[in-house]
Amino acid sequence: MLVDSHCHLNYKGLVEEQPAVLERARQSGVTAMLNISTRESEWRDIVATAEREKDVWASIGIHPHEADSHPDVDLAKLVGEAAHPRVIAIGETGLDYYYDHSDRERQRQSFRTHIHAARETGLPIIVHTRDAEADTAAIMAEEMEQGAYSGVIHCFTASEEFAQKALALGFYISISGIVTFKNAKDLKETAAKLPADRLLVETDAPFLAPVPHRGKTGEPAFVADTARYLAELRGEDYTDLCETTGRNFYQLFTKARPRMWL
């Protein structure tokens, strides 16, 4: 049960040949894909893909890069759009202080709004964080005190300290193809120690193609390469890791959609 917990099937590089991309994923053993939205203009197409493909699911959210350009995406809009039965997550959202494409205070406001939507809908939140560990952890903890919610730190590249804070809040951690990169020493060390029952794998396709596909357009089929590498890194059997991460995916994302099945 191999799952790509985070991909962008409607992005340039994949959408032009989406049927072939999906077939290659299935041939590689991928049984489910979560297709992530980053801006409002994508929502309709992403949900339509999930309606059309039984092994593809959708998220509703605004990426921190897009926070400035979406001042009208409020709690009511997120909750309303997330009511669709093929939507199983809120996000991706979070903080990105590396590029600062949006004002930091606006990013923080948007992040909290998404958390409120996750709490209201019962759907997990997908968190992006880059060069913003302290603020991300603080907001997550503060909001958890206001009421429980669940989620995942996607494409994890942060410190082990941040990982422990996220785990303590009940979050899952998703590992991407970055773990296969030569210069990812700290990430490898952290990934090797993450608890198996909180671990997910992803591609973030069309980005971050893992070894041995560096330089190519990433696609969901490549999650198999990341899972194989991660299994070897952790001293685990590949099939067992696929089963564990797949089971974790269903445990996290089916809470508010109990009839979800493939």
UniProtKB/TrEMBL annotation:
Regions that span the bilayer: none
Keyword presence, Hydrolase: yes
Keyword terms, alphabetized: Hydrolase, Metal-binding
InterPro entries per the UniProt record, alphabetical: DNase_TatD-rel_CS (IPR018228), Metal_Hydrolase (IPR032466), TatD-like (IPR001130), TatD/YcfH-like (IPR015991)
Keyword presence, Ribonucleoprotein: no
SUPFAM superfamilies attached to this UniProt entry: Metallo-dependent hydrolases (SSF51556)
A molecular function GO annotation: hydrolase activity
One Pfam family linked to the record: TatD_DNase
Domain of life: Bacteria
Family statement drawn from the similarity comment of this UniProt entry: Belongs to the metallo-dependent hydrolases superfamily. TatD-type hydrolase family.
Designated name of the protein: TatD family hydrolase
Organism: Parasphingorhabdus flavimaris
